[in-house]
Amino acid sequence: MEQTNKQGINLDKKTKALFTVKILPVFMGLSNDLLFYIAINTLFLTTVKGLTASNVTFLTTISGLVYILLQRPFLKIIKKVGNVQAVRMGTIMLLVASIILTFAKSYYIIMLGEIIYIISYLFKSMDNVILKNNLGYLNKKGKYIKYKNISNIIFSINTTIVTLIAGYLFKINPYIPMYLCIGLTFINVLISLALHEEKPQVEEISEEEIQERKIKFRKAILLILIAYGVFYATISTGKINVKLFVEHEFEHYFGLGQTAIYFSYVLVMTQIARVIANISFYKLYNRVKDKILYYMPLVCLIAFLLVILGGLIPLVNTKAILMTLGLCLIFGIKDIFSTYIHDLVLKKARPNERQGCISYLGLFKKIGEIGISLIISLLLLKIDLMYIIFVSLVLAFISYIINFDIYILIIREEEKK
């Protein structure tokens, strides 16, 4: 006979849901990306696999396009197999991808590995839905940000450690980081076998209310998806271009050898900034709540302004400090914005809509990244890198306007309630 508590929750199911909620931040912190591979991927692909810089760029573009084209069919598969099975499939795909990328010799096999690597996150991202549903089942609806943020803290600490040691391991043997990547991914597969999902009860509402809610939901979600796509792409492309710009400026003053040393220090500082930002986020969110939506583009604006100002100032020490601060801010806001948007979308969606919402977040992120990367690549043929940072500044300002509009909509909705 099944036992239930006062809230009518099955105790056996509750135990499984609680256990999953506790291990999910650790699982997500270990599997948010291919640790070790992300630290040395460009170096590994160019020096060990013999690819050119254009080959590596083409891999990223092709895998992103495949993700966009196959998002809808894969979403149907996810809905059919369920969230837990989708996450397990995603982690197995990550394991397969890491093995292919390690041992493949043909460019086309490496491309297959890269495609599997990118697509795997369409499946694995359902861990966000599992977390939200289990918290809803346990009557902890407002705790998603807390647990998601713990996973970000774990991941950012792991990334910082990996950044510090991956280069040394690569010098000893370039395959050691990849072997560690495979081993860690195998552990993630084992952890995924322990995941369990319970869905919260859905309130019964009339057909008329359902249709009205659908119209409002689609309008709000579309605006949020566009905001996420634009801002995430602004951060991703901006981060790459700022790194290139800082490297170029450092080379001008310090030379190639010293630049490699100084820039490695800068990268470690950006990872530390990411850890500090994630640790501080939950307290910040409890203070400002939905204002975080337009605070992040504002911080992004300040970051690009610091980089531009650093590029214009001739004093070497001041230049280095301003540029490093700008880069640290860019690294710091990435996880924060992503966590908030995931929570916002999952709150607005009913349980049966959450798979689609998370899937479309990934889709709009890829469309934004590919679209803006393509525009910037074309602009780089005509204009200097400094002006590209100005383009990123403009994109950050556009994001600020879009996000502020969404914030106003959220405030109006709350006032109606």
Structural class estimated from helices and strands? mainly alpha
Radius of gyration: 22 Å
Order of helices and strands: HHHHHHHHHHHHH
Percentage of residues in DSSP E strands: under 5%
Which short descriptors sum up this protein?
417 residues, 13 helices
Q: Could you walk me through the main structural features you see in this protein, from its secondary elements to its overall organization?
A:
The protein has 417 residues and is mainly alpha-helical. It is globular. The model has no long low-confidence stretch (mean pLDDT 88).
Summarize the entry for a quick read.
This protein is mainly alpha-helical and 417 residues long. It is 85% helix and 0% strand. Helix 9 packs across helix 10 and helix 10 packs antiparallel against helix 13 (385-416).
Blueprint of the fold:
Blueprint: H1 11-31, H2 37-48, H3 53-81, H4 83-103, H5 107-124, H6 127-137, H7 144-172, H8 176-192, H9 207-288, H10 292-312, H11 316-348, H12 354-380, H13 385-416
Helix pairs in contact: 1-6, 1-7, 1-8, 3-4, 3-5, 3-12, 4-5, 4-8, 7-9, 7-11, 9-10, 9-11, 9-12, 9-13, 10-11, 10-13
